[in-house]
């Protein structure tokens, strides 16, 4: 199966159900009180990590994931049922990112982990909630709130303790096969590995860890050239980097030091924190004469003398047990620190409408010929929450608009009696 590591789609939580307008009707009770129930909450959109999934192919095939809308309230104070939540199962290691802001909405880094990414709208209140001593038979009700909606990108990053990096054909796949239970395809040409290969390795001390052979880098990968970001995306989660070098220099045709510095440059330019990850330099292909000659080069000896270096032959499995011990020791102290660490927590709570919300977003437009238009997020929430299907709701809507300062803004701009005020789909006559 093709390894799908990114997908873009829309998630939309369910709208809350509307509150009901109803009155008690029974024999010998001519003026029964209000008994309209509340609407149910909309269904959330939840992401769950599933260890049995290995690609994002399903997410690429479906463009919208939506929670069910809440049900409308009913007579006799019966509340509407909540909408069914939508659970989206993704592979362990998936990030859910808000495309608009770039914020990480969920990091599904553990099996069975669940995160509510889009919160369903709260159900509206029925008229039974608005009865008081002054209005014993209100026809006031609230519409359900809209659920959260996001355009998101899912990114799957390989969950491995150790990542093998290096130029194409450095021998990473052969080495992975030599130290683990993985059996990646191996061939003598560049870009053999196009998808990450995982293997579980066991060191002589009994410790086990997951190793990833990641697609080879080329110069400019941090800018997206070649496999580019597809490769670099997967190295982010690895706690230890094993930099595999073909010490033969491609049978004597390339500069070993230059090849090493090229990869380090790409890692650093992609993300500065990658440069701080613990690194083991694996000098590979020591079974070749060219590699033996290079290891006697004084320039190469001096360059690598202060680095953590181990010489191996992946093809003949020479010194691979020592490599496993080195990795196990490094993992004892290496911590997993996400490259996307943020200063504060991500707030996933839905923002509810209150009269204390900022008013700066309210906009007044004079369209000419006695037509005015009012818009803005704050006004939209009020418009949506109080449908003016009843006289009581119309009175309450006007009162709320007055408290928001909309009336003062219209007067300041010169509105005249008889002018029409358009509030989204509502058209109201100015009577002041």
Describe the structure in your own words:
This protein is of the alpha/beta class and 432 residues long. The chain has three domains: 151 residues, GTP1/OBG domain (Spo0b-associated Gtp-binding Protein, Chain: A, Distorted Sandwich); 172 residues, Rossmann fold (3-Layer(aba) Sandwich), CATH 3.40.50; 67 residues, GMP Synthetase, Chain A, domain 3. 22% of the residues lie in helices and 22% in strands. The chain contains eleven helices and 18 strands. Strands 10-11-9-12-13-14 form a six-stranded mixed β-sheet, with helices on both faces. 39% of the residues are buried.
Q: Summarize model confidence as the mean pLDDT.
A: 81
User: What structural class do you assign from the helix and strand content?
Assistant: alpha/beta
Report the portion of residues in β strands.
15-25%
Which descriptor suits the 3D outline?
A: elongated
Largest sheet: 6 strands, mixed
Low-confidence stretches: 184-193, 219-229, 340-359
Tally of helical runs:
11
> What is the CATH T-level topology of the largest domain?
Rossmann fold
Question: What's the arrangement of strands in the largest beta sheet?
Answer: 10-11-9-12-13-14
- Could you estimate the helical fraction of the residues in percent? 10-25%
- Nearest-angstrom radius of gyration? 32 Å
CATH homology group of the largest domain: P-loop containing nucleotide triphosphate hydrolases
The succession of helices and strands, N to C, reads: EEHEEEEEEEHEEHEHHEHHEHEEHHHEE
- Named at the architecture level, the CATH assignment of the largest domain is 3-Layer(aba) Sandwich
Q: Give the number of DSSP strands.
A: 18
